[in-house]
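[#protein-structures] MJ: dropping YgfZ/GcvT domain-containing protein here for a structure pass
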Amino acid sequence: MSDTTPATWLSDRALLRVSGEDVRGFLQGLVTQDLGTVAAGRPQWAGLLTPQGKALFDFLLWEDGGDILIDCEATQRDALARRLSIYRLRRPIVIAPAEGGVHWARDGGEGVPDPRLAALGRRWLGTAGGAPADGAWRAHRLALGVTEGTAELGQDATLWLECNAAELNGVSFAKGCYIGQENTARMHYRAKVNRRLIVAPLAAAGDRTRALYPDLGLIVELRRVEALGDALVPDWLAPALTDGEARP
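AK: finished. structure tokens for YgfZ/GcvT domain-containing protein:
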């Protein structure tokens, strides 16, 4: 009899555990998201930026008792841990790989809605292993115009708001300071997001290109908002492209 177990495991994701004294306070001063909004069954998408507000890493934050689990790219887990450790100083904070895996389904009752966009589907943490769903997840995510990861966002190459972080709930403008906050807030309040990471039909790579997916017929590029060309403009992004007013 054939195995009908659905593929849910995102094999290119890994977990990093941050534990110790005042874990939330430690991360609050570093990442773009308000740790006060991270609760049981309520993960949040966030970024760790350069002082200039450019993306270094993006990840999801999950509550696990008194600890925070970081759902990140498997290939970037060690680099992210090293970067976070720089800011630990003498604090009794432990940053270490965690067992387990990240799972995804387009629909169903398992897990919780993706905090970026409900249409992305449902996500949960469990045992690592099973049938990989990486390809199905990538196709679904890109069809919705959502970019993620160092291959698409770059490292120290793209301003966080150019990654559509405000529209995808990846930044709090009400929390206190964090790395890269000054430039990020200035861009937001002055409505000065001049470029956007977009998904478009496959074309020859150029200097704006971040990632190519020939199997999907798609390309990820950083384009100026007045020159989006054939970019896919999803419903969640369209209002931001026509909003020329400074935000309150």
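MJ: nice. The longest strand covers residues 55-64.
AK: one more thing. The chain is about 20% helix and 25% strand.
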